[in-house]
Design a protein that fits this description.
This protein is α+β, with helices and mostly antiparallel strands and 345 residues long. The chain contains twelve helices and 15 strands.
Length: 345
């Protein structure tokens, strides 16, 4: 009997929906065995192909990253299982497509695979190459090498809240962030989330000592819907041997991140909550900006190693003193100089 395995983490974003879909598939497709695997309880069950949760794997083949719509999941499973009802729908859609194509310009009718499967042409190779050229460690590579990279990377989409990497992952890979944002964090012994960094597009993360990247018990989570290319260790080694400048770029990025990490450690060692929060607000509103947009009080608390309640009280104090103005996911800096003075405490 075919087995659909749905891999989740106990508290991951979207995992309740994954459980609901599992129940729906088990009731709808009786010829299919459905199981939900919680990787926090069964870490040894993690498959090598897993790059995000939830992930849907049918007999060893990844069929979905993140939760698909129920109708789409039923359609794809019926196609893969060879359901007679699905074949009838294929024939009907094929006839309709053939008729419409014939009326339009006399072209050959589309095949069932072309009708049912989203065309990879949407992700045009030249678009993938253009995105890869913006990654900080690849920015000066020639077109030939970028084309090679496009052929040797796998593009995936991680929805907001999905984990790209979790502690215990064994596969060495670099995750090249093309769009979206990724948060790197750890959990303290009491379950508090401590954000180490938030990565913007055009850089990378992952567990690969060769690239100066080791996660050491950290999580990588998509802050918003993100598009990521996955590059394996072997391909990175081949690239470095032929293009040593990539190794220099890796050293540059690693050096910048070490400096950022030292600044965070210094803040934790010598500053109280008001000083840390003032430093964070000024950093998030960098380049002379006056607004911090898109962060909840919980987000800010996790970035300074505090509790949400403490962070909210400190923000209210800043507001009362006329330093900031608070809106929904928006903080406007009113007195930059006063915040700068607070960063010294």
């Amino acid at each position: 009997m075919p087995i659909l395995s749905i891999y989740i983490l106990e508290h991951c974003y979207g995992c309740d929906e994954a459980r609901r879909l599992a129940d729906a598939m088990a009731a709808r497709l009786t010829e299919l065995r459905v199981r939900v695997v919680d990787l926090e309880r069964e870490p040894d069950a993690r498959p090598a192909a897993l790059v995000a949760v939830p992930t849907y794997i049918l007999d060893g083949k990844v069929i979905a990253l993140g939760n698909p719509r129920q109708t789409d999941l039923v359609r794809d499973l019926e196609r893969l299982l060879g359901s007679p009802q699905h074949e009838e729908r294929v024939m009907l859609r094929r006839r309709m497509t053939s008729l419409l194509d014939g009326l339009a310009d006399g072209r050959e009718p589309a095949t069932p695979a072309e009708i049912l499967t989203p065309s990879l042409a949407r992700f045009a190779p030249e678009l993938k190459v253009r995105h890869l050229s913006t990654i900080d460690i690849f920015r000066d590579l020639e077109l030939e090498v970028l084309n090679w990279l496009a052929d040797h990377t796998t593009m995936v989409t991680a929805r907001r809240g999905q984990h790209i990497y979790t502690p215990g992952g064994t596969s060495e890979a670099l995750f090249l962030l093309k769009a979206g944002r990724v948060r790197i964090y750890r959990l303290t012994l009491d379950g508090k989330k401590l954000v180490l960094s938030t990565l913007e597009p055009h850089t990378y993360c992952g567990d690969m000592p060769l690239a100066g990247q080791q996660m050491y018990g950290t999580f990588a989570e998509a802050v918003e819907d993100s598009t990521i290319c996955v590059l394996g260790r072997g391909d990175l080694e081949r690239l470095i041997r032929t293009r040593p400048q990539v190794a220099l770029r890796l050293l540059e990025v690693t050096g910048r991140r070490l400096l950022d990490a030292e600044a965070v450690i210094e803040d934790f060692a010598f500053k109280g909550i008001p000083g840390r929060l003032a430093t964070l607000l000024l950093r998030l509103a960098s380049d002379g900006g006056e607004e911090v947009i898109g962060h909840t009080h919980q987000d800010l608390a996790e970035m300074i190693g505090s509790y949400r309640e403490t962070t909210t009280q400190t923000l209210d104090d800043f507001k009362r003193r006329g330093l900031i103005e608070i809106g929904r996911r928006r903080i406007r800096i009113l007195d930059r100089r006063a915040l700068e003075l607070l960063t010294q405490r």
